[in-house]
Amino acid sequence: MTEYKGQLQGFPKEIINKMLECQVQQGNEKDAQIFEVYLEADKSQKGFTWYTTVEGENFWRGVIKHKNFNLFFEKYPKYPKVMWVSDYSEVLKINKRVVFMEKNNKYIAWDSAETLEEAKLITNTCIWSYAEDIEEEVLELTIDQIAEKFNVDSKLVKIVK
């Protein structure tokens, strides 16, 4: 788990992740250190410009400058989400469940649901003592690596989103 320093200290990781996403969307490299040094760094300072985001300047001013984290979580609720869960003091990354609530330091999940689609069909719940976010793995490939994998000329590879 990444520990953020400087001006990001105390910020929820969900907010930092969204800030980093905006930073990349505006053409900058993903780099939390920019915000650790200067929390309000705009695009020209390798951060992101608030008013050009979908959320807008007032949203980011409230979240970042005024540290109104509730404003963020009203727009982007923490739950439901797929997490690693366990009843042991250490999450062993064996049980994957859709957690829909944290209450009294316990995590409530739909019983046996491992995806959001499965959770739509289940009404039984279970309680877990520990939960941990599932970090998304990002696969980064060069055009040459993609071309080699598919045995084509790299000049024929076009990246689309």
Explain what this protein looks like in three dimensions.
By secondary structure, the chain is α+β, with helices and mostly antiparallel strands. The protein folds into 2 domains: 6-75, no CATH class; 79-161, no CATH class. 29% of the residues lie in helices and 17% in strands. It is built from 6 helices and 5 strands; from the N terminus they run ααααβββαββα. The chain has a 5-stranded antiparallel beta sheet with strand order 4-3-2-1-5, with no helix packed on it. β1 (81-86) and β2 (95-103) form a beta hairpin. The longest helix has 13 residues, at 13-25. The protein is globular. The two termini are 29 Å apart. The model has no long low-confidence stretch (mean pLDDT 90).
Strand and helix layout:
Blueprint: H1 13-25, H2 32-37, H3 57-65, H4 69-75, E1 81-86, E2 95-103, E3 106-110, H5 116-119, E4 125-128, E5 130-133, H6 143-150
Antiparallel strand pairs: 1-2, 1-5, 2-3, 3-4
Helix pairs in contact: 3-4
CA-CA gap between termini: 29 Å
Amount of helix = 25-40%
User: In percent, how much strand structure appears in the residues?
Assistant: 15-25%
Query: Class by helix and strand content?
Result: alpha+beta
Largest sheet: 5 strands, antiparallel
